[in-house]
Design brief:
Layout (H helix, E strand, L loop, with lengths): L5 E6 L9 H12 L10 E6 L7 H14 L3 E6 L9 H10 L4 H4 L9 E6 L5 E5 H4 L3 E7 L14 H8 L2 H15 L1 H13 L4 E9 L5 E8 L3 H15 L8 E9 L10 H4 L16 E9 L15 E3 H5 L3 H11 L9 E3 L2 H8 L13 E4 L7 E5 L12 E3 L7 E2 L5 E2 L5
Parallel strand pairs: 2-3, 2-6, 6-7, 9-10, 9-13, 10-11, 11-12
Antiparallel strand pairs: 1-14, 1-15, 4-5, 7-8, 13-14, 16-17
Length: 421
C-alpha cells in the first residue's frame, strides 16, 4: 500500500505499583477510623463502580474483610448510574464480571435501581440516592480518581461523581446530566455530592489511583470532612501520571478496541482528541488527530459500543457486535447522542486505510502520518510511522524497539503484526 513504515515504540513511563494492596488498605482504614460510633452488627454498604479498575476484586475484598473483622455486616452495591443496561440484575452482572460476587467477596451483593429523594440543592437539582445504600447504617465508596472523559475541572471522575451519578442510579444520572447542560457537570457533581454528604450516611471513600501502566499506584481512605478538597489534590496527582500519544500531530489513529472497560466513553476523548458531542480536536493536552479508525470492541464491554460515533471509520466486525439496548441506554442517559452514530464501515483494515488516507489532506500516501494503539488506556507500547514527529517534550521517554516495520495484512485484508490483537 506504500504507506510509510512504522517503529514499534515503548514509552518509558515510571511504574508506581503498590506491592502490598491489602496491607495498605487495612492501614488506611485503621488510621481513618470510619467505624467510629458504629455498633457491632451495623450494615455497611460498599459502593463499587463499573470501570475496569486494576485489582478491583483484591481492593474491595480487603475492605470487606476489614469491616467484617470489626463485627460489621458489609454488603456490596453497584454505584454505576445507568450502566448494566439500567437494570438491577444487569448491574450485578457487571460486578460479577470483575470478580465481585457474594461467593468471592464473602458478603451479599444487593443491586436495585430504587432510589430515595434527598431534596433539592441550592441550584434546584432534585437529588436521589440508592435506596439500599440509604437504608444501611453507613456507606463507604470505593472508586478510582482520574480525569473525566468529557470535561475538565478540579473535580472530575472520583468519589464525588460516584455520590452523584453512581448513587443516583438511572433516575439521578438522567436528571444530573440534564442539569449539566445548563451549569456544567462539575458544578452538578459538587452540588449533588454535598447534598448526599449532608445525609450523614457517607462514612468516607477509598480512593484508588492508577499509574500510566494501569497499575494500582495509590490507595487512600478519605474521611468525609476532607473529601472534597482531598479529591481535588488526588485528581491533580493522577493527571500528572497519565500518558498521552507522544506526537505533535497525527493524520490517522488506529485503535484496536473500544470498550466500557477502557473508558466510560468507550475511548478516552482526551487521548483521541474528540468529544462526546462530535467536536474534533477540542483538547489542548492531546495532539491533533485527523482521522480515528477503530477495529473492534472488547468482550468485557458486552456489546455496549458507546463512543463508536467518535470514530471516523470502523471495521465491520465491530458494528456486528454492537448491542443496541445497553449502548442506547448509556447514550440517551448521558445525552451523548453523537456517540451512538455508526461511522463509515469497512470490511477490512486494508479497505479502510485505502479510503480514509485520501481524506487527511495529504496528496501522497508516503506523506501520511499514523499511530496505532491497542486501546486508549494502554499507551505504553504503540506503533508510530517513521515520518511522524515525536513531541520534543516526550522525546527522551520514547524508546524505539528494533528496526522499521512495514504495514502487513492477512488474506482477509486485516492488519497483522505485534499490535494486531
Amino acid at each position: 500500500m506504500q504507506f510509510p513504515p512504522y517503529y514499534l515504540v515503548r514509552q518509558k513511563l515510571p511504574s508506581r505499583a503498590l506491592t502490598d494492596i491489602t496491607g495498605t488498605i487495612c492501614a488506611q482504614l485503621d488510621a481513618a477510623g470510619l467505624d467510629h460510633g458504629l455498633k457491632p452488627g451495623a450494615q455497611i454498604a460498599i459502593g463499587v463502580g463499573s470501570r475496569g479498575i486494576a485489582n478491583l476484586d483484591r481492593i474491595v475484598g480487603a475492605a470487606v474483610a476489614w469491616w467484617k473483622a470489626r463485627g460489621m455486616r458489609p454488603f456490596l452495591f453497584p454505584a454505576m448510574g445507568s450502566h448494566g443496561a439500567a437494570t438491577g440484575p444487569g448491574q450485578a452482572q457487571v460486578l460479577a464480571r470483575y470478580g465481585l460476587t457474594e461467593e468471592s467477596m464473602g458478603c451479599p451483593v444487593r443491586s436495585s435501581l430504587a432510589v430515595v429523594e434527598l431534596g433539592a440543592t441550592a441550584e434546584g437539582i432534585e437529588v436521589v440516592m440508592d435506596r439500599t445504600a440509604f437504608q444501611a447504617d453507613g456507606v463507604m465508596l470505593c472508586g478510582r480518581i482520574k480525569r473525566h472523559t468529557d470535561f475538565a475541572g478540579r473535580l472530575e471522575s472520583g468519589l464525588f461523581k460516584m455520590m452523584a451519578i453512581g448513587l443516583g442510579k438511572l433516575a439521578g444520572a438522567q436528571r444530573y446530566h440534564a442539569h449539566g447542560h445548563a451549569i456544567g457537570l462539575e458544578a452538578v457533581i459538587r452540588s449533588v455530592g454535598r447534598q448526599v454528604l449532608g445525609t450523614g450516611k457517607i462514612l468516607g471513600g477509598l480512593a484508588i489511583l492508577e499509574d500510566a501502566h494501569h497499575q494500582t499506584a495509590h490507595l487512600e481512605v478519605v474521611p468525609v470532612a476532607r473529601m472534597e478538597r482531598r479529591e481535588e489534590e488526588l485528581l491533580e496527582l493522577s493527571k500528572s501520571w497519565m500518558p498521552r500519544i507522544p506526537l505533535d500531530s497525527v493524520d490517522f489513529l488506529i485503535v484496536n478496541e473500544l470498550g466500557k472497560n477502557w473508558s466510560g466513553s468507550g475511548m478516552d476523548p482526551k487521548v483521541i482528541n474528540r468529544d462526546i458531542h462530535g467536536n474534533v480536536n477540542p483538547w489542548g493536552m492531546a495532539p491533533p488527530v485527523g482521522r480515528v479508525y477503530v477495529r473492534d470492541i472488547h468482550p468485557l464491554s458486552h456489546g455496549n459500543a458507546i463512543g463508536i460515533g467518535m470514530a471516523d471509520a470502523v471495521h465491520r466486525r465491530l458494528v456486528r457486535k454492537v448491542q443496541r439496548k445497553p449502548t442506547y441506554v448509556n447514550g440517551l442517559t448521558s445525552g451523548a447522542l453523537a456517540c451512538l452514530k455508526i461511522p463509515a464501515t469497512f470490511a477490512s483494515d486494508r479497505a479502510c486505510l485505502e479510503a480514509i488516507w485520501k481524506t487527511t489532506g495529504r496528496l501522497n500516501r508516503a506523506d501520511v502520518t499514523y499511530c496505532w494503539i491497542r486501546n486508549t488506556q494502554d499507551l505504553t507500547e504503540l506503533a508510530i510511522s517513521t515520518n511522524a514527529q515525536v513531541s520534543e517534550a516526550q522525546a527522551d521517554s520514547v524508546e524505539k524497539l528494533g528496526s522499521p516495520l512495514e504495514l502487513e495484512f492477512d488474506a482477509q485484508g486485516d492488519l497483522t503484526g505485534a499490535l494486531s490483537s
